[in-house]
Write a structure and sequence with these properties.
elongated; mainly alpha; three-stranded antiparallel sheet; 4% strand
Length: 532
Amino acid sequence: MPSSNNNNNNQRRSSSSDAKRTNRNDDNADVPPKKATGTGGFFHQVGESMRSIVQRVKESTSHTQSDGTDSSSSLENNNNNYRKYTVKELIQSLEREDDAAAPLPPALERRVRDFKFAQQKRKERQGVAKPWGIFGLYAHLSEIRADLEWAEDAAWRRQMHEPYLSWSDFEESRNKGNHNRPWFTYSVICICTIMLVVTFGVNDWKIEPMTVNPLIGPSAQTLLDCGARSTNLIVNENQWYRLFTPMVLHAGLVHYLINMAAMYYIGGAVEQSHGHGSAAVLFIVPAVGGNILSAICLPQYISVGASGGIFGLIGGCVADITLNWSLLFLKSTTDQKDRWRHMMVLFWLAFDIILNCVIGLTPYVDNFTHLGGFLYGLLCGLSTIEKLAVNFFGLSNSSSSSSSFQNTRNTIIRFLGLILSVMSIMITTGLLADSDGVTSPCHGCRYISCVPFPPGVDEKWWYCDDCDGVQADLFVDSNGSGLYTEIDLTCPDGTVTDIGIVDDGHYDRSSVRKALPEYCRQHCDSVFTDVN
């Protein structure tokens, strides 16, 4: 074997030096025999990824198996003992509840039993999980990965005449150690919490009324001062950092709590399963890409939130589920019960996405960031997420020529996702730089991201117009009383309207500023910047 595998072998031997070696040539056992203990820190020491697991299995299956069975490549030369086995046949074998002999090579059948044993021990310790939405579904996928890790390790130890690692030690080693903590997820939550406190401090520790911010948070000006996305400032003032800063800002407590709960569960699951680097890519790239798309389509609005990055993580989850669908639901058959289970999984997945899109209809949160983040996350997921390989079971999907075609196709798909993501960001950034920072190419797009609420009443909780950013020239009473008597209001479409406000009793400039949006809605013919 290559030197990297020799190093792993030495580490495995050193981690189990106190355990008694036993011969594992008992192919007729239903489950692996009693396993040695004292190697609880094995996975913490080795820290191997699924990629190295697949590589080691590919190398190990090229040698003669320790239980006296030839590898799949050797069996192929024996027409009496070998035939082609499809992935569908493998899945059917994994789904078997009985111990009847399956028409599989002994080495493959033993690995199937190892995998079933890992599932049994996990269910005994953790119970039968009931997935709820994307959270439970992705947790279920992580459990499948854990079962494959233990079963692969058991196959390697059997070949090398090493004692088994007990399931309890394996579970303990996976759950402890700094390398297994989702530090990137914790860092994002920590930074978002700090920035939420900062925004309230800048807002003089006041909560704006529901008509200004229904998410229980600061004013629009405060969010702008802290780094909210503003297309005009990005394009015309070269404040390009505003494509990054919104991902750690939130419009209010409601927005913050929902996003951080999603970040903790989804981000933590992705990071523990795929590592810090993949989690960072699936969060940052979709967040920035979604902000660029939002800045192009909704230049008249400001927006904040980690939602684009969270939707990127959800897109990565969808990519992971799509790549590993055949091994995700090992109980799937054609009966009505399992068809209903599949429908419920898809229902809860759609519900999670729709819930976040509904939140995107409120002020300062936009659905273009959500949808853009999801698409970028899906593309990045195809390039960064490792597919669970059936090669673990010593199985080839089909003939060598077809296998080469599939490998080429998979490589193209993986690179294509990354290439499309980079090209899309470059193209949309160019479009944003060439825009005027004010006019939207799609006037009706505003209603994808904001809907006035509640409908059918004059006094709404929030509006989806451009009156919040209007300006006016103020005129004070000439008798020296300080009373503001008139304003020249510049409407969103650029027209100027003279409005008498002497009866409103404004003596303070700040009170006039707060009243400008209402004057705009009452006196301006158009409340939108871009009228097509």
